[in-house]
Design a protein that fits this description.
Elements lengths: L7 E2 L4 H5 L2 H4 L4 H4 L24 E4 L4 E5 L11 E3 L7 E12 L7 E7 L7 E7 L9 E3 L2 E7 L3 H5 L18 H10 L6 H8 L14 H24 L1 H11 L2 E3 L5 E3 L5 H13 L5 H11 L3 E12 L5 E9 L5 E7 L9 E3 L4 E5 L13 E6 L2 E6 L5 E2 L5 E3 L3 E2 L3 H6 L11 E6 L12 E7 L11 E6 L8 E5 L3 E3 L12 E3 L2 E3 L2 E7 L10 E9 L5 E4 L13 E4 L8 H4 L2
Parallel strand pairs: 1-27, 2-9, 19-32
Antiparallel strand pairs: 3-7, 4-8, 5-6, 5-7, 8-9, 10-11, 12-13, 13-16, 14-15, 14-17, 17-18, 20-22, 21-31, 22-23, 23-29, 24-25, 24-30, 25-26, 26-27, 28-29, 30-31, 30-32
Helix pairs in contact: 7-8, 7-9, 8-10, 9-10
Amino acid sequence: MLPESRPHLRVPAAPLAACSLSALLFLSACDSAPREQRESAARASAVTLSAWPIPARIDAFAGEPTVLPLPADTPPGVPQVRLDDGVELRAAQAFLSVTQAKPDAWLGPIGDWQASPSPTPGALRVLIFTLPPQAKGQGIWINQTRHDVQWLLSPRDIAGDSPAAWQPTLPNFAAGNANALARLRDAARNPLDRWRVRLLLDGMAADVPPTRFDDPTIESFALYIEQRWRVALARVYREDPAACLRFKQRLSALVEFSKTSILPAWPTDRPGLERLVNDLLGAKPGAVTLRVEQFLAEQPQGVVWVADDCAVLAADSQPLPTIGIANLSGKDALARAALGEELPSTELTPIPAYAARLLTVAGGMPQTPDATPKVSVALGKWTAATPVAAKPIPVEPPGLIVGPLLPDLSMQRWLAAQVGAPAADRSLNALVFRPAADAEGRRRWSILIECHTPPGEAPSAADRVSIYFGPPGAPNGYLAIDATGRVSRDPRESVIEGPPIIIHVQRAEDRWTCIIPLPDNAIERKGLLRLGLTRRDCSGARASWPRPLLPWQEFPSRALLNLDAWTGFPEAVKER
């Protein structure tokens, strides 16, 4: 254990100079991974917005503004807009950007949208014009390209005034949940997503939205998007009301991860959604529902992720992983899961529609030693498999490289079963090793930690690495070290008991490095160590190892390490 009576525990700095982890980690995925763009509220425009091609057919409402995102290769200047008869329409362009963005690990950066007549970095360029009623029957020319025009009817002229046609999709589990409603308020600040929030809260029943953007260009953009979706959904409802309800629920999906964690899980492919609404508005009668059913069939029916590789150890010390299963099928379903290929016919877990559950999985090991352990899952008829670390990782000289730490899962990455990459100037490298004996003759297992920082960033207690060992929630299963060298044993950052424990931190222009000994009680039976790391840096971003976390998760997954594999350095190494 770290001594409580020594307020300043200093570890010799010599190993740090000889063992910069950049030399040890050249084979690590950390150095080869693409750099993920970091969002910062300090920058004027923190979000890069992308457009999609202008469709061959433009949908228009007589006398209402049409707002079209312009592709990046559109020539500079305001595009010329003309009707087939040569009449030129008044047109304007604007550059939409997001300012004062704050990071949101799930939705992406949340900020205030504004329109400017001048280009700004990362802005979305849009073209704005209004088609007069007398233009019906004509096409429209944007610069030298002709587009057909489809004049859209009022949504209520298509679907009628029945309340069922405009039924909100907010599920009962989210009604009255303050956290879920706050998240939706944030999502509604994005004109690209306000229509989905309206589906949840008011069913997009009204021609005029309940809340409007202050900027008239942003409001026109959001309203044009909403009106096209209202017409498309009205067409679906007229053909098949039941399919329309399932469709709207998927487009505006919320998932209940827990009673306090209810978050959006709607489709994130914006170009794909644009193609979808374009198809629905142009489809012939009878083909609308077919397009909807095709879309629903293409969506993931569930999501499986590894919450913890070894939260539970069986009697034979085999790790039993904990996995998460989310049901996105739109209907209640029974789930089965097992380690290996064979799925049991018993031990069925009911998972309601748009809910998620955690399961601890038991089962056999792979048939061959080289096979990758995996968890097989069935949710109704849908099946999936995900790799797990179901065998202890041997720790051998000179040590086990830990990392890279992975940023929290966003909605988009979670749905796609992808992980993000750490920013190069916020990455963490670590090494689990057994150093030479100290003055008391003890060789204490330790972790060498190297945290990269933007050049010149001052050391701060806000830059904090947390080390978790043992099963989740284990007493005394936590240590943390910040960039100032202060050590804490309590995950509540504000709690400091007794005199502070300070560990020597070696600093460079772009990193800080330290060695922290592991408490003796961290090592379990048979030399096993369950280990997880998180880092929350000065920007507020969090990353973890061995698995990325959902933003609301408090504790990281654990990796199971076999310390008994450490047999000392070979003789050939000792002689050098």
